[in-house]
Input
Amino acid sequence: MIRTQIQLTDEQARKLRRRAEQQGISMSAMIRRCLDESLEDGSLDRSGRYERAARLVGRFPDREGATDLAAGHDRHLDEAF
Output
């Protein structure tokens, strides 16, 4: 393992400490886990990102029960604003 130093904002340190405590791991382990996840996600090429996004389409129901979002998106946006 390579030893390194980083600087965190107070808020980042608080969030990191809290998340590490919740998972029962050290802050160092939490940083390594976050880096691994970030670097893994960053390795997707453009087509990989589109495929990932496409898997989410339609996965979550509309909070207000709308079923015609594709056809009525302009009306829904108008009503929202």
The longest helix spans residues 27-42. The two ends are 53 Å apart (CA to CA). Residues 1-57 form one domain.
